[in-house]
Amino acid sequence: MTPPPDALIDDLLQATSRTFALAIPLLPEPLRREVGLAYLLFRIADTLEDAELLSRDERIRELGRFIELLGEPTEANARQAAAAWSRTPPSADPEYNRLLAEAPAVIGRLNGLESAAGGSLKRNVIRSALGMADTLRGADARGALRLPDFDALRRYCYFVAGIVGEMLTELFVLRLAPSAERDALAADAAPFGEGLQLVNILKDAPDDARHGRVYLPAGVDRQRVFDAARDDLVAAERYADNLAAAGADPGVVAFATLPRTLAEATLDVIESGAGVKVSREVVAQKVAETLAITGASP
After folding, report:
1. How far apart are CA 266 and CA 81, in angstroms?
2. Which of 44, 171, 265, 289 is the most exposed place for a label (fewest CB within 10 A)?
3. SS3 sequence, the chain?
4. Rounded to two decimals, what is the model's pTM?
5. pLDDT in tens, 47-71
């Protein structure tokens, strides 16, 4: 019997995510639980990286604390970490701070996963957090960051999103029979995540700059970033096609398809000069189209 969705995890996802709050419920169990937990773990790392209430060195220290917790994810260690984050809240966002306070519950669910899935989550979130800490070393003492060039932008996108694509692929492959299409997923795993991240960076650039985060290098033509995002989204479309050809559940194909189609729509809006967000009507349309194309259940 499939266990019911975890109310706490679903609540935290709704409070802290955007696109993936729409996509994760499309997944079948146990992938839904696994990917939901993965999102929250990456969100904890993101919160510590972006912690506007902490200095650069404090952010690096707290990322180190999180990495140590994932290396030894005991209840006692999770409670100690949550207590430290409660004493000195890293974020001005109350929902992100609530997620940090719920670290013991999140870690408890992580420890309840099957070993292959749980190991993938721990290993890849650690890889991402290490990359975030490395990027922060280029910030000033207050934590203000300016990426110097296009290579640094690509490297950052890999740390925070390409690794996510690789982790998702590991989880998906656990359920797929050997095939050429399954093997081909690895080539597009990182671009699948990186394209979504590039779109978010383009969309959120003004808000990020207000918080001291400038991911678009000053000397790089903005069109080059748009072109890189479009190329990655082509790879993301191929990734979803290969999932379908490899026999993935329709919900998995829909999960891979929906964020990509929303990212394409967002790029269209930004390039047209009409703003940075797609309308609710367009989001609803993309959801309906994705369900129709993939045969997934809402």
Report:
1. 37
2. 289
3. CCCCCCHHHHHHHHHHCCHHHHHHHHCCCCHHHHHHHHHHHHHHHHHHHCCCCCCHHHHHHHHHHHHHHHHCCCHHHHHHHHHHHHHCCCCCCHHHHHHHHCHHHHHHHHHCCCHHHHHHHHHHHHHHHHHHHHHHCCCCCCCCEECCCHHHHHHHHHHHHHHHHHHHHHHHHCCCCCCHHHHHHHHHHHHHHHHHHHHHHHHHHHHHHHCCEECCCCCCCHHHHHHHHHHHHHHHHHHHHHHHHCCCCHHHHHHHHHHHHHHHHHHHHHHHCCCCCCCHHHHHHHHHHHHHHHCCCC
4. 0.95
5. 999 999 999 999 999 999 999 999 9
pLDDT at res. 20: 83
Q: What is the pLDDT of residue 156?
A: 98
Q: Which amino acid is at 262?
A: L
Structure tokens at 186: 């690895």
| Matching residue, tokens 């929303």 | 262
Where the chain has pLDDT below 50, the residues are 1-3
The pair of structure tokens assigned to 8 is: 């706490």
Angle at 129 between CA 194 and CA 61, to 5 degrees: 145
Give me the pLDDT at residue 2, please. 42
Which of 1, 4, 84 shows the shortest CA–CA distance to 44? 84
pLDDT tens digits for 174-197? 999 999 999 999 999 999 999 999
